[in-house]
Amino acid sequence: MKSLWKYMRRYCPLYGIAVIAMAASILLDAAAPQITQRIIDQVIVEGRMELLMRLLLGLLGIGLGRAILQYSKEFIFDLAASGIGSSLRKDLFDHMQTLSVDYFDHHNTGELMARVKDDVERIWNACGYVGMLIIECAIHTCVMVFCMFRISPALTVVPLLVMPVIAWFALRMENGLGDVYDRISEETASMNTTAQENLAGVRTVKAFARERYEIKKFRGHNQNYYRLNMEQARLISRYQPNISFLSKVLLMAVIVIGGIMVIDGRISIGQLGAFSEYANNIIWPMEMVGWLSNDFAAAIASNRKIQKIFQEKPGIAEPEESLPKAGNCELVMQPICGEIRFEHVNFQLNGREILRDVSFTVPAGSTLGIMGMTGAGKSSVVNLIQRFYDVSSGRILIDGKDIRSYPLRELRRQISVVMQDVFLFSDTIQDNIKTGNRDAAEWESVERASICADAHGFIMKLTEQYDTVIGERGVGLSGGQKQRISIARAIAKENPVLILDDSTSALDMETEKEIEGQLRQLSDCTKVIIGHRISAVRNADQILILENGRVAERGTHEELLKKKGLYYQTYQVQYGEEEMTWQ
What we know:
CATH superfamily of the largest domain: ABC transporter type 1, transmembrane domain
Distance between the termini: 55 Å
CATH topology of the largest domain: ABC transporter transmembrane region fold
Strand content: 5-15%
Number of helices: 21
Largest sheet: 6 strands, mixed
CATH class of the largest domain: Mainly Alpha
């Protein structure tokens, strides 16, 4: 787990103090049997009762000292492990935020949640309680063996013969558990994904009466999870009883062989008592070996999965020349004017051609409408403008500058987008509208954006108005209300580029017309409107019709009607004059 070193080295001083406290506690443990030996030999055998009180106070002092030292080392280990776990989880989440959209296209939410939560917790545990016990077991065993050797080198051979056998069983168990933990981790991610998808889409599940199918699907993952845990339990039950049995054999052998040595006069009965205490003290570390190796194997497996994420690099590269910095603050680039130009853009995704030789220009402050059947590449235009993906060939320019030369964060800061799939956070309506400009947005801009999106009216009818907390993904609002809040959120950013990706599909014609009238008043904003309805794009300065990833038609509303092509057919269908043939 060398990759954790960069986190652990920050806490080296704390670990050092904790280990010192641990060592002192173990030395006190080692001193207790020596007092026991004196009580047996000097007080009980020799009758020196005047020593009893002093020796008992010594045992009391050892107990008090151990309590303080044990508390100190456990608290310090927990403190260091909490810091490591917190930093690791923060860095992991931060790194995930830097990854490009294509990474999340191939990794599900449940898997990533398992890494952020379960896997980090296992490493946290290994750096804290488990790691502490591993170190303590090692030091404790060495000290106890040394003390036993001082009493009787011959008798010490007994535990030294048994300990390697116990270690062998523990090693076999650890090797088996490592593979099982890998598979348990994978199954945990799959089960989390299934549960997350089901709960997030509970309305869809119920609408299609899919409850039995979803239950069966979850039960399958749950059964696999159960089977893997039973496999883990079988491995533990195969080796752990052997470890416990050998520990008891060790203690019995010490008493029998030590008793013979007492009879022969080679050691005193007090020394046998002390040796038995030492032997008993090395039993618990050996019994713990299996459990510790179990947890440590889980932490190693979790660390491998987390490091695999850290090794991922963003598919979308930042420009080599980033913005200049003033002190520790990155300077914000100058606002763009908003001219957008596609030059012979080709785009492929997962081996499939999405866009082919697409070229167009949107002057700053003008409006572009895009239509086309499902899969024609409309949303890909949105994704490319924001650099969620990069073009396969060709160029996209904003204000005459290739968007690949803009810092990603600053590029996206100046583009407002209303996504086709509306997502609202579990927060107040006001904070949802301020999402893109939380620090700078004033109440007036929130209200103005809501009015522009025709959302102010229904918001004011809610119990808490703009302070109303909406549920996850906007639960409690209609589809049209969610779309209007999403539009208000984009407008509130007051950016020079506004993109609406089929953002009025859930609105009635009157509301759509009202919103479009408000949007036309944003004369200093470049607008890209993607829609399936003629009413959404008819007032655009230029309309593109995409077909199979190509620009099939372009022009104004009137020009396209005169061509009597795809746009004309759509117009006729939507206004009821003939059956649509291309949707």
